[in-house]
Prior knowledge:
There is one protein chain. With 260 residues, the chain is of the alpha/beta class. It folds into 2 domains: 4-127, Rossmann fold (3-Layer(aba) Sandwich); 133-258, no CATH class. It contains 14 helices and 5 strands. It has a 5-stranded parallel beta sheet with strand order 2-3-4-1-5, with helices on both faces. It starts with 6 loop residues before the first helix and ends with a helix.
Amino acid sequence: MIADSQKESLAELNLLAQSKRQSILIEGPSGSGKTYLSKQYANMLSIDDCSIVPPKVSDIREALDASLSLDNPLMLVIENLDLGTPAASYTLLKSLEEPLPNVYIIITCRNIQGVPDTIISRSAVVTLSPPTLNDIDSYGKEKNTVKFNAVSSRLAWHCARSFSDADSVLEMNPDEIEYYESLAEVCKFKESVSTIVWKLGHYPSGKESNLELAIRSVIELMHNNFVTRCGVDCIRDLNRNRIAQHAVLAKFVFNAKYCE
């Protein structure tokens, strides 16, 4: 499915494919379809060999070393380079400076400020917009119509803001769907910070919840401008990976409970 939010970026990739650009950086929010667009670029170039590579020095080095022995065209998709260490970027840099004729590299990131300038300057940058609510609904209908019809009116789906959020909701069981609506009781903030943090971070079964969906659910249930600002700040921290998830959640709960 080609979402409306992806069409402009796909048009840019099509132009780059005409010149067979070997190094591309796709930036966009989590769950917006960066890896999907990377695979579409491989299709534009008729490249069948497309490998997804985590932003780790060992994985990048292994993928690059393996490409040396290949003659066929190869696409390497380095996912979320901004979440890797500086060493991961430096490991990749030489291949961008002296690309092999058969190797195409696409780098994805959530926050371009976390990518070294030396990588950005050697890549064509394509910016991907977040999906619209209509995009997310269309994605859910296409992926699992029956489940979409069952969850589309529920709070968890209403709080989905990305394709990965949609996948998460479509995979939830009924108790997990109900959990997000049950957070109305947690929103009274009468319990200790540590207890509320646990409840927001876990389903009653003990399984970890989707933190972004949990925070958005609290925002929707409370209709409080201050809590909304706190929640938006915390979701931004989660996406930038600047602070550990449990610390982000503790910050949100503390601010919502004590700082208004």
